[in-house]
Amino acid sequence: MSGTDATKPEVEFPEGPPPTELVIADLTVGDGAQANPGDTVRVHYLGVDYESGSEFDSSWNRGESIEFPLRGLIKGWQDGIPGMKVGGRRQLTIPPELAYGPAGGGHRLSGRTLIFVIDLLGVR
């Protein structure tokens, strides 16, 4: 377990309009195994809406990490997690087309730019 496992992150909100491309920022660089496309990852994460700043999901609120295959996730995670190392914390700012699609797409987050802070706890 990394030291970041116990502390829920706080998101620093950027100024200006939302980006139109995926923005990847390493907040802490890990020193463990590297995540690759197609891996299954174990993470803690926080998701907030770019425009409103409101939190829409957090594994910390549930009190446990979650594990899932990268290929089953939104494109922003599929593109943004590979290269990350276990023990790291990364912030992804994901435009709608790499998240839940354009407004009216049927998902409550369709049309929204999303910010995720992800702690990578394990890969396999």
From TrEMBL:
<feature type="domain" description="PPIase FKBP-type">
    <location>
        <begin position="38"/>
        <end position="124"/>
    </location>
</feature>
<keyword id="KW-0413">Isomerase</keyword>
<protein>
    <recommendedName>
        <fullName>Peptidyl-prolyl cis-trans isomerase</fullName>
        <ecNumber>5.2.1.8</ecNumber>
    </recommendedName>
</protein>
<comment type="similarity">
    <text>Belongs to the FKBP-type PPIase family.</text>
</comment>
<feature type="region of interest" description="Disordered">
    <location>
        <begin position="1"/>
        <end position="22"/>
    </location>
</feature>
<dbReference type="GO" id="GO:0003755">
    <property type="term" value="F:peptidyl-prolyl cis-trans isomerase activity"/>
</dbReference>
<dbReference type="InterPro" id="IPR046357">
    <property type="entry name" value="PPIase_dom_sf"/>
</dbReference>
<keyword id="KW-0697">Rotamase</keyword>
<dbReference type="Pfam" id="PF00254">
    <property type="entry name" value="FKBP_C"/>
</dbReference>
<dbReference type="InterPro" id="IPR001179">
    <property type="entry name" value="PPIase_FKBP_dom"/>
</dbReference>
